[in-house]
Amino acid sequence: MKIILVDDEKKFVNMLAKRLSLRGINADVACSGKEALKKVTQTSYDLAVLDLKMPGISGFALKKELMDMRPDMKFIFVTGHGAIDKNGNNNNSDDLLLAKPLNIETLIETINQKINHNNEKRPE
């Protein structure tokens, strides 16, 4: 399983990657949409955890670009901005939105659900 974490809060995203690593989940980090796009051209990720509000490109807009590159990628959105209108998300109604501060166990459970759900849909 390959994961990329994208958030403009550098300390937050690096700490999140460390906490996931301690639980056996390795994740790459990007601190901007531009950096995430570059990394996705070099590595095939199964899942992206995207901050909704970042300078330059929103999480929803980044998702659209990433889906053009990797149609099978799954997404989880995070936000520190309370309730969000998901009208900007026109692709998968099963996208999940988690509030900051993140509960690491909830995030891991959500990651596993998204990855396992994806694997169940793949033909053998």
Element string (H = helix, E = strand): EHEHEHEEH
Identify the overall geometry: globular
Largest sheet, order of strands side by side?
2-1-3-4-5
Number of helices: 4
What are the low-pLDDT stretches, counting only 5+ consecutive residues below 50?
A: 83-93
| Approximate strand percentage | 15-25%
- Counting copies of identical and different chains, the oligomeric state is single chain
**Alpha carbon gap, first and last residue:** 18 Å
Largest sheet: 5 strands, parallel
Helix content: 40-55%
DSSP E strands, number: 5
Which structural class do you get from the secondary structure elements?
Answer: alpha/beta
Q: Averaging pLDDT over every residue, what do you get?
A: 85
* Rg, Å, rounded: 13 Å
Short description:
By secondary structure, the protein is an alpha/beta fold. The chain contains four helices and five strands, in the order E-H-E-H-E-H-E-E-H.
